[in-house]
């Protein structure tokens, strides 16, 4: 067990600690930040599943790491993100924990979805109350172009598909993820 809760990765904190006897998510055990999300944040490791990427993105919001949030959004959408708005939202939110509701690792041949609740303390009504940002996020696996011509051509990286970015695309254009398929048959159904 970890020595104190500050060593625990933010993505493993149970937001309902007051309601239960455990303060750490027990679904995959307790992990320190250095064992869980920090290697992804530092770039020494790549998320091997969409759920791992989602957890690391939540931890990046808690730790106010906007560059990681930008880097893990689909590259074609990154220029449309407002880094300062990400920083302000992350700093102003009193994060309390994360619950993975459902992980569907195979929505399509390259897409996955993670339903989650990111908990925070809402100060709006005077005394803090636990509130949740409930979302179903879609992720896309993109082949690493550097490895396409090698034996490891099946290696890919997961990216978050941001449904809030305004893309000026027709449904018949090539997909923004680089799959070679038409946008409408690939990522277009998710953004």
Could you explain the architecture of this structure?
The protein is α+β, with helices and mostly antiparallel strands and 191 residues long. The chain has a single domain (5-163), classed as Nuclear Transport Factor 2, Chain: A. 20% of the residues lie in helices and 23% in strands. The chain has helices at 38-42, 50-62, 66-71, 75-78, 83-92; strands at residues 94-104, 111-122, 129-143, 156-161. The protein has a four-stranded antiparallel β-sheet. Residues 1-5, 18-29 and 147-153 have low confidence and may be disordered.
Summary of the model, kept short:
With 191 residues, the chain is of the alpha+beta class. 20% of the residues lie in helices and 23% in strands.
For the terminal residues, how far apart are their CA atoms?
A: 41 Å
What structural category do the secondary elements indicate? alpha+beta
Q: The CATH topology is what?
A: Nuclear Transport Factor 2, Chain: A
Write down the Rg.
18 Å
What structural keywords apply?
4-stranded antiparallel sheet; disordered N terminus; 191 residues; Nuclear Transport Factor 2, Chain: A; alpha+beta; 5 helices; single chain; 20% helix
List the helices and strands and how they pair.
Layout: H1 38-42, H2 50-62, H3 66-71, H4 75-78, H5 83-92, E1 94-104, E2 111-122, E3 129-143, E4 156-161
Antiparallel strand pairs: 1-2, 2-3, 3-4
